[in-house]
Amino acid sequence: AQRVTQPEKLLSVFKGAPVELKCNYSYSGSPELFWYVQYSRQRLQLLLRHISRESIKGFTADLNKGETSFHLKKPFAQEEDSAMYYCALFTGGGNKLTFGTGTQLKVEL
Amino acid sequence: GAVVSQHPSRVICKSGTSVKIECRSLDFQATTMFWYRQFPKQSLMLMATSNEGSKATYEQGVEKDKFLINHASLTLSTLTVTSAHPEDSSFYICSAPGRSYNEQFFGPGTRLTVL
Q1: In this structure, what are the phi and psi dihedrals at residue B86, rounded to the nearest 5 degrees?
Q2: Percentage of chain A surpassing pLDDT 90?
Q3: B84 partner at 20 to 30 Å CA-CA among A23, B19, B20, B51?
Q4: Helix, strand or coil for residue B87?
């Protein structure tokens, strides 16, 4: 069965410091991975997907199949980055998303 | 972008009553919608997949008779929590896939409190 693991419940960094939110997955098929973000009092929204190999709001994430990881990175954290981040694995059967437990990022001044 | 709405945003009910939550895709059609449950500071747990014109597909461990799902049209899915109990209190979120089959748009969620 598929599984997404986010080992850190809370990550606190200072403004301007690098950020890395960890995500590991377990899936027998070809993985499609996403990062979703939930800002305070807002709905969950897509941040980025590994297929696009894009950088959104300065965030990037590289799929490492060898390590089964999809860590989210940003070189310089900003205060507005404070939010809840969820790593998600898309499984084609049923078009379902499996979410990790989420990491609360807190950027301090 | 695609917008998904939910109604109500929060509801408080007495134990034993039934509560209906609506999920609407406002500017696009959705033959499939997903219902999640989120406990405080925990992840989203997929409860069921709502299918327009056919029965919903429930995840393992989710009671079909307790959580009734009806996908009435291409823009509306409803979740009815029947005979609600305090342990059903939670945050219920729906989502619908957009044009990209693997991208989902989420509703704002409904906070259910059962007294």
Answers
A1: -55, -30
A2: 73
A3: B51
A4: helix
